[in-house]
UniProtKB/TrEMBL annotation:
Domain spans labelled ANTAR: 171-232
Keywords (A to Z) from UniProt: Kinase, Transcription, Transcription regulation, Transferase
Pfam families listed in its UniProt record: ANTAR (PF03861), GAF_2 (PF13185)
Protein name according to UniProt: GAF and ANTAR domain-containing protein
GO molecular function: kinase activity; RNA binding
Amino acid sequence: MSATPDQRLARTFVALADTLVVGFDVLDFLAALTERSVELLEVDAASVILSDQRGGWRPAAGSSERADLVELFAVQARQGPCFDCVAEGRPVRSGDLATEAALRRWPRFAPAALDAGFRAASAVPMRLREQTVGALTLLKQAPVDPDDNTIAVGQALADVATIGILHNRAASRAELLAEELEATLRRRAVIEQAKGVLAEHGGVDMHEAFTALRRYAHDQERGLSEVARDLADGTVSPADVFARG
């Protein structure tokens, strides 16, 4: 018997909580968050941006590493519902990006999203008390305005992600929060390099390379960024990673 939506949601929170306790890796956690968001909220793609602690926002994870989606996720860190969401600290939604493009509300994001095949978008903030540290974006291929329940569940998932980023540290201390966010984004840069190495070696696209990297890290019970660093310094070879596939 297949699980009900409520059962899948409950299992997601249990899985995320388990990730916090055992072998926590924040980038792997965020990647899993976006994948579960796609599954549970019946959207076609999801991504996370984080504060770089210097007044800017940068992409940290996505449900796919497809090149056009990675480019779109980078654009949304500067414009679109995700950018508005972190600026205002509240959910932002649009049920028809074609209309937004015509009105030039988001002159860079809306055309890029349409070119990637998406017609609707929404974003919910990742908040620590009154401070917004990032956002979770949800994209749909159909022009459908997300309902209140989807936004509410998305917000709950974003709240869990915020707890995951802080990793049970003394979150009230702003300097620890800034340190963790900056470290997360530095690790993401290392992973981008590792993806390129694997893609070139294996003749695969970036999404397949990222999937192989995650699979190898899970199999070795190691952190995603740790394995990426080993690829960079030659401790682990691309052949080792693909052999685990």
